Amino acid sequence: MRWLPLLLAGVLLLASCGSDTERRAVDGLVDSWTAGPFYTLPDPIPPGAPGTLVRSERLGSAPAGAIAWRVLYHSRDVTGADLLTSGVVVAPAGPAPAGGRTVVSWGHPTTGTAQRCAPSVGDDPFDLVEGLSDLLRAGYVVAAADYPAMGAPGPASYLIGATAGDSVLDAARAARALPEAGASDRLLLWGHSQGGHAVLFAAQLAAAYAPELRLLGVATAAPATDLADLLRADIGDVSGVTIGAYAFAAYSAAYGVPLDTILTPAGAAATPAMARLCLIGQNAQLHDIATPLVGHYLGGDPGLVQPWARLLAANTPGTTRLDVPLLVAQGGADTLVRPQVTTAFVARQCALGTHVTSLPLPGVDHGFVALDALPTLLPWLAAVERGTPPASTCPAGA
């Protein structure tokens, strides 16, 4: 540790001499090296309303033309209990326009469930915000929640709708507490995969949970919707076992249900170890554990075995009509969030009367669906802000 000041001085000197890419890489290393204490919760935790900032720190690795902060803020879990959770806020540099900037609260795709798997912990906390540069150029403030139990310690949140959705809304509230961000009360939601699930729940909860925010619209790419159907469809390969391990471990922790009530003995024994590994950076280790379990992981159908069926249904979004426009992008070659599951979700939303823009992307897989949706997303967000969303793609009379 005694060499750390000299090392930091050296990398800062290199950053001052290189390109913006080199500057961000070096500053990102500094941000990650010095982040440890930020995630240590105060003892005792001070009381605070949801979205109240506990601490923030500027990030030197912000994209060119932007300013950014790592934030720690109050939120609530599925039981309504107070918690602290972390994330990142990014805003265009310079004064905000009259009326402030609209906030886009981003829901990130699966990176894991352990604290170190949080996007804000890494040396590039902006890398997983799909469309970030476009959103900043359009003048938005971007709030990116880590989700509870990631970054800062806290209760499990993986595919737990209220816990994740609350953290997405409270990230927007935290952004408004940063004067330099210039964030207004206008809110748009954007999420991919697990993040699509989180922002759909945020949209359902917004009117009651965060009535001071003016939700304008919600956009998703390959959102996790019918959880029981997705588990059934995916569990036959190594990726499905991996994602299943994250979900079953989180539900077991949040609801106190033993793993051996749904998993085989081998599956129940292996799941805690998988839940401690990150999807990015430890994928090979995850697959080493998961591969022998393919075909031998579930002890029953989670859509039928109680209380798992009830818990999965309670955490499946889309059971109520959304009062704001909804964009749903789905890749036709997605083998993780299956197209037929998303199609069924869109049909249910249409039947409920939600204004839906469905964006099928033939040949696009799960990893690229959010990026391929950007040419549609940006004008869609602008139109929704103006109050003139594109015509619904729902069938007439749906």
Question: Strands, helices and their partners?
Answer:
Layout lengths: L3 H14 L2 H14 L19 E6 L7 E11 L5 E11 L8 E7 L24 H6 L3 E5 L15 H16 L6 E10 L1 H16 L4 E8 L5 H8 L3 H18 L9 H11 L7 H8 L17 H7 L11 E6 L7 H14 L3 E6 L7 H18 L12
Parallel strand pairs: 4-5, 4-6, 6-7, 7-8, 8-9
Antiparallel strand pairs: 1-2, 2-3, 3-5
Structure write-up:
InterPro entries: AB_hydrolase_fold, Lipase_secreted. The protein has 398 residues and is of the alpha/beta class. It has helices at residues 4-17, 20-33, 132-137, 161-176, 194-209, 227-234, 238-255, 265-275, 283-290, 308-314, 339-352, 369-386; strands spanning 53-58, 66-76, 82-92, 101-107, 141-145, 183-192, 214-221, 326-331, 356-361. Strands 1-2-3-5-4-6-7-8-9 form a 9-stranded mixed beta sheet, sandwiched between helices. Helix 11 (339-352) links the parallel strand 8 and strand 9 (356-361). The longest helix has 18 residues, at 238-255. It is globular and about 60 Å long. The model is unreliable at 1-15 and 22-33 (pLDDT under 50).
Largest sheet, strands/sense/barrel: 9 strands, mixed
Strand order of the largest sheet: 1-2-3-5-4-6-7-8-9
* CATH architecture label of the largest domain: 3-Layer(aba) Sandwich
The CATH topology assignment of the largest domain is Rossmann fold
Topology, number of strands: 9
* SS field, number of helical segments: 12
Termini Cα gap: 64 Å
What is the H level of CATH, i.e. the homologous superfamily of the largest domain? Alpha/Beta hydrolase fold, catalytic domain
Derived structural class: alpha/beta
Strand content: 15-25%
Topology as a string of helices (H) and strands (E): HHEEEEHEHEHEHHHHHEHEH
